[in-house]
Amino acid sequence: MHDIGILGSGRVARALAGKLAGAGHAITIGTRDPARAAAAWAGARVALRDCAEAARRSAIVVNATPGDTSVERLGALREELKGKVLIDVSNATLRGQDGLPSGLLYASGSVAERLQAALPETAVVKTLNTMLFTVMADPTSLRVPPTAFLSGDDENAKAVVRRLLGDLGWPEGYIEDLGELATARGPEAVALLVTAVVRKRGLAPFAFTIAR
Predict the structure, then answer these.
(1) What is the CA radius of gyration of the chain?
(2) For position 122, what pLDDT does the model report?
(3) Which uninterrupted H or E stretch holds 88?
(4) Contact (Cβ atoms closer than 8 angstroms) between residue 15 and residue 136
(5) How remote is the C-alpha of 17 from its chain's centroid?
(6) How high is the mean pLDDT in each 10-residue block of the chain (212 residues)?
(7) Between β-strands 123-126 and 148-152, what pairing exists: parallel, antiparallel or unpaired?
(8) Do the beta carbons of residue 60 and residue 3 sit within 8 Å?
(9) Rounded Cα–Cα distance for residues 3 and 34 (Å)
C-alpha cells in the first residue's frame, strides 16, 4: 500500500480518494484551504493538508488541479515533489463562456510535458484525462469498455501507475500504454470533444475508447 497525495479537493479528488482509500492506501488531500475543505468534505476518510505538506508526505501524487494553472501550482512544489511519481489527470484547456473547453492551452504540447519540464526530478505519468470523473474510479459502469491511456518516460513509474489503475477498478485489458510522455498530446487533445459530448448528452458518464 502507498501514501498517496491528491492535489485538489473537487469532484475528481473525491472520486479517486474514495476508491484508493477503499483499496487500503493512505490518502492526503492537498488544498489551499484545508480547514474549509475539511468542512465541505463528504468523501472517504482522508487527511487534509496544504499542497506542500500533502506532496511532502506522499510517495505518489495525483494532480487533480485545473490544468490551466497546474504548471504554476506544481512548479512551486519542485522540492516537495522531488523523487515522487506524479500522476497527471488534468486537461489544460481554454474555457468558453459556458465554462466548457474551447481550445487547448498548450496546442503544440501538453500540460504533462510542461509539468515534466518544470519538475525534472519527478516522474510524470499521464492517464485518466479522457473521461468523466465518475468513470475514473468506476470504469466497468459503462456498457462499452473504456480505455485508460498511459504516457510517461519512466517505465518503473508507469508500472506503479498501472497497478494503481487496477486498484481503481481498471482491468488490464482496458489500459493502453501509448509510450513516452510526448504521446500525452493525443489524449489531451481529445478534451476538445468533451464540449460537444456534454452539450449533446449532458454530464452522463462517458469515456473515449479504442474500439477493438
Answers:
(1) 16
(2) 98
(3) strand 85-88
(4) yes
(5) 11
(6) 93 94 95 84 86 96 96 96 98 85 91 98 98 96 96 98 97 97 96 87 90 83
(7) antiparallel
(8) yes
(9) 18
Q: What is the pLDDT of residue 1?
A: 85
Cα–Cα distance for residue pair 64/62, rounded to 1 Å: 6
Q: In one letter, which amino acid is 18?
A: G
The one-letter amino acid at 111: V
Sheet containing 148-152, strands listed edge to edge, beginning at the edge strand earlier in sequence: 47-49, 26-30, 3-7, 60-63, 85-88, 123-126, 148-152, 175-179
Residue 162's Cβ-count burial label (10 Å; 0-12, 13-18, 19+) is: middle
Tell me the one-letter amino acid at 103. G
* Residue 207 one-letter amino acid: A
Residue 164's nearest CA partner among 7, 19, 13 is 19
Grid coordinates in use for 93?
Answer: 484547456
Give the relative orientation of helices 111-118 and 67-75 as an angle to the nearest 10 degrees.
Answer: 10
* φ, ψ dihedrals at 170, nearest 5°: -85, 115
Which pLDDT score, from 0 to 100, does residue 131 have? 95
- Domain annotation for the chain: domains and CATH numbers: 3-201 (3.40.50.720)
Between helix 11-22 and helix 155-167 the angle, nearest 10°, is: 80
Helix (H, G, I), strand (E, B) or coil at 142: coil
